[in-house]
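Go through this one:
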Amino acid sequence: MLPSKRAPMRHFLPRLLRPATAPLLLALLLAASAAWGQKTPTTEPHFAGGPDSLRALLGRVQQQASPALRGQLFLKLSLNKDGQPTKSTYLTPATVADRQLTRNKEAQAAAQSLLGQLPPWQLDPTASPDSKVATTVVLPLTFGPMAGPVPLLYSEQKPVFPLPTDERAPRDSSPYLVFLQRQFRYPPDDLRNRVQGTAYGYFEVSEAGAVEQRRVVGSLSPTIDAELLRVLQTLPNATAPPRHQGRPVRVAYLVPINLHIM
């Protein structure tokens, strides 16, 4: 029997998020575009000159900045249906130093310089003009010396991870992305405080298939960041590395977690 009076929704949501039911509720609470079938391109946007040319362009833009500038920012670009960048904004970094860097005039100028040099991106070549949709890409800008080898941002062949098959996942989704998004648990305090938005995790897969450099690059709150980092740690090493033009390569990957309370 239904209760005669409906309790306020803010009381229901925390009770619903018991550990046993959280995975089921992720389909409602996490609007994760790659995993839950929102209208997105079936293939990721590609840079006109390929991933090597994109890496070289980012390097040239970064070299134009003052050597005194230090840190790494991630620039989110909005692309229209023709693949043309229309606007850009930095993701909110997880560290105080990098958050201050987003307000630096030189870092802002670097973003504008990059935006002015980017050609239109190649969207899904198999899609008809009417079915193409606007989308986004996220690019790293590293100021100062790199701590390690510079990865590509995509490759012809993706890595293969030893993950269980998810029959409910969309056919064109990335298995690693579905796996990580299903591991995420909405922190109760953030749920009560209605913290919403998109958090971004980051990792690299080496030429040998090792998962490295796991971290949060787009922050929503300390507790969401901690949960996202926990989730990233659950991803096993790849059994086959990413490959480009027939050779194993190091590639960087983003993990978006879209949090929306319905």
About this structure: DSSP finds nine helices and eight strands in the chain. The two ends are 24 Å apart (CA to CA).
